[in-house]
Amino acid sequence: MQCPRCTVTLEAVAPDERTPEVQGLGCTRCGGVWLEQQDLSRLEQVVDVQWLELRHVPPPELQAELLTCPRCVPARHLGKVQSERDRKVVLDVCGHCHGAWLDGGELEAIQQKGLVAALVDAVRFLMRR
Ligand SMILES: [Zn+2]
Ligand SMILES: [Zn+2]
């Protein structure tokens, strides 16, 4: 699978060392991380959040600078989900395979307060829609 921003092949990573059970696929060039639905499910086991709510991605008209899902064929655009507590944190979520993309800069901001906490923010945002 390739990075949605670069053409670099993604490699297995644990994006947050505090939760090594949560695995993703990382880009060595831009530092972004792709989390598949099963990765997010593992996160659900850790933080007890209803990740199925990721189905409620924002409608296309709210999205800007669309990325393409690295998983889905034919290609699908990812939806934008903004963290309420940290506006720099934007998840790009696939409404089809329910994977999520985190950009490198976002991941830095996230790691300052913990990946899990930031993702929980995103889930809460989704559940209100
Ligand atoms: Zn990249
Ligand atoms: Zn997808």
Fold topology:
Elements: E1 11-13, E2 24-26, E3 33-35, H1 37-47, E4 79-82, E5 90-93, E6 100-102, H2 104-113, H3 115-128
Antiparallel strand pairs: 1-2, 2-3, 3-6, 4-5, 5-6
Key features?
six-stranded antiparallel beta sheet, 27% helix, globular, binds zinc ion, alpha+beta
Please describe what this structure looks like.
The chain has 129 residues and is an alpha+beta fold. The chain has one domain (11-128). It has helices at residues 37-47, 104-113, 115-128, and strands spanning 11-13, 24-26, 33-35, 79-82, 90-93, 100-102. Strands 1-2-3-6-5-4 form a 6-stranded antiparallel beta sheet. One zinc ion is lined by residues 3, 5-6, 8, 27, 29-30, 32.
Q: What's a concise summary of this model?
A:
By secondary structure, the protein is of the alpha+beta class. 27% of the residues lie in helices and 16% in strands. It has a six-stranded antiparallel beta sheet.
